[in-house]
Fold:
Amino acid sequence: MNRFLLVIFAIGCCTVSVAQTKWRDKPIKDIQLKEVTVKAKKIRQRGDTLIYQVATFAKDGDRSIGDVLKKMPGIQVAEDGKISYNGTPINKFYIEGKDLLQGRYGLATQGVEHKDVSSVEVMTNHQPVKALKNLSESEQAAINLKLKDGAKSHLITTINAALGTPSLWSANLTGMMFSKQWQMISTYKTNDTGEDLQRDIREHTDILGKSEQTYSEAEYLTLPTRKQSELEQRRTLWNKSHLLSTNWIFGIGRDATLDAQVACLTDRQHANNETKTEYFLSEGCRTVEDRLHSKAALQALSAKLTAEINRDSNYLNNVLRADLGWNSGDVLTSGSYDASQHLYMPRHRLSNTLEYIHRKGKNALTLNSRNQMEWLPQYTAVVRDGQPYRQELGRRSFFSDEHINYDWGIGRFVLAMEGGLSYLNRRMQEYHTRRYQTYLTPTLKYPHRDFNFTLRLPVSYFHYDFGDSRKDDVSYGTSLGISYRGIPHLTASLSGTISENPYQIANRYDGLLMTNYRTVTQGTMEYGTTTGKSLTLTAMYQNSSLGQFGFLTITRMWNKNPFVSIQSFDSDWLINGLMLSPNRSRSWLVNGNFETLLPLTGGMLKLYVHWMQHDRQMLAANVLTAYRNNSLSLDAILNGTLFRKLNWKYELEYGSTRLCIGDGDASMLQGFEHSFSFYYSPAKKLSLSLNGEYYHNEIARHQYTDYFLMDTKAVLKLRSNLELTLSLNNILNENKYAYTSYTEMMSLSQSRPIRGREFLLSIYFRP
Structure:
């Protein structure tokens, strides 16, 4: 048997040897492999973090990371630059893990180019304070920009300048540095093309559910040029704006940072508007027509210094800031009124906020201190029919809040006890008010991954010193919230509150305040507080593997009000204000959104719904009248790519407002907006784009107006870092835009001029 196996083995070896000899004698042929395309996932999930690959969402024509964020499902970017994730505002915006901009992230979304960002990380349920993890859960997300290696540790400079007709200019010089230990974004911008530079430095961070006592002086005067319409602001804003901003953050050790921000803004704006207001009074309808010619000068200087230590065992955050503003305006009006008005509206605030947290095991001690001073030496002067009127509105206030919170971890539960003292000292002309508040808020929390439960029972004692009288008050409240994340891709929450709002000191004055050339506001010396109840149901859907996100929020509110709004006329003066008369109001708020990737089109579908309804009462011409307002907005956005070179986008928006007075029939006005954009690159270095907007507005019952606006642009890439752009805006030279809406017990019709046909030649250079 062994011999037989040896023979077989020998024959096999010979066969292999012969085969190898024959293989060496034959020529070797090339083997053609089929092309294989490897596609990275657009969205990956790692724990509670979603990772969006920027390159898979960026399209030709996009430059800033803000352009790309708008194309990422689950992320919403509002017109003012505010970012939300699945309908909830984000609480932090990081760049490489550092909070450089402290809520002013418009500077990054507009200034950081998407080609420098490898991925956008969305950290859901993000608790920015390490010492509060597993003690205080967050329902908000944070965004972190992960930069490419080539964008780190060296200075990035971009220059964008433009000249055009008629007499147009725009310039933007930005410098950025992102190193391991420090970061910087500094920019200078100027333009007269309708770009709103206030958006870049507007603070958006809103940490929901954070217990904080704050105070801000109410604004009685408003600048007339700041009115909004459905059009993009760049089409209706005439401006001459300059913005200088610098932002720095330094890492000190492993967990400490020092952040400094300074911004200076000067803005000159002018507008020519026509308005028609119909007031629905018991005695009949009263119509007021205005033709406004207005100018506004806005000047603001802000500085902010933040020191932070963020460790697992302790947390320290101190914010010292100064916000100084000098706003003024002039109005010349004709129509129902022939009048002129000058407004002087400075507003200055100094504040310091300190927060310290010490964590030991499952227990945490939190100390908070906030102190601020405000000065508002404002006035307005009006001339009507040759008669001068002047209203002084000088105010100053000091506010202080000191409170302490202790969290006990008891098994899976957390029991928190918060208590504090606050003090307000306010002067407005001869009215002097002091408010003392003592408050205590016990809270029971069950912060679990799948199930969260929070119960708050706040109680406050107020003592008011009005100078000639005093008032003591005790308010109670209850807040209960439950959320569940145990169902795959779905989070549901239900919350309810019963609360009593503090007395509104801003309404306490005797007589009338003149707020503009035709309106006076009536104050009240009576005391009263509003009590309210609310119930909110929220559902959030997230399936990152399919690129599908959605949310739905339904809120029902009931309020018991001590004061009723009044609206009447005394000769030609409109009187607004409050009068002591207990009444009730009810409201519905519905917000929904669904977004999904569409692989077939290479784009995305977004659907939005927003509906509000308010049932209220008003004392109109001395008659108590019930009325109902509601508004509906539906929005659908669809985008994609054709033939790999043509990017397209289509949006359809429907809006309506309704008003029903008493038992009468409801009146409704509606409008439609269609918009489209195309971006095509016929050659490697040339790209063309076309944008259009069509509006169909109901300005009166069954009377419609139509507007069609169109822009075009051509971009020539001379080098990878050098571009020339030719822009032609408002090709059809539409010169005005009109719309009408219902609000409270009146209809408001506005006709605004539109910036005419404009030509711009711009150059972009990145050294």
In short: The helical segments are 2-25, 54-57, 65-69, 106-111, 233-236. Confidence is low (pLDDT under 50) at residues 1-31, 33-38.
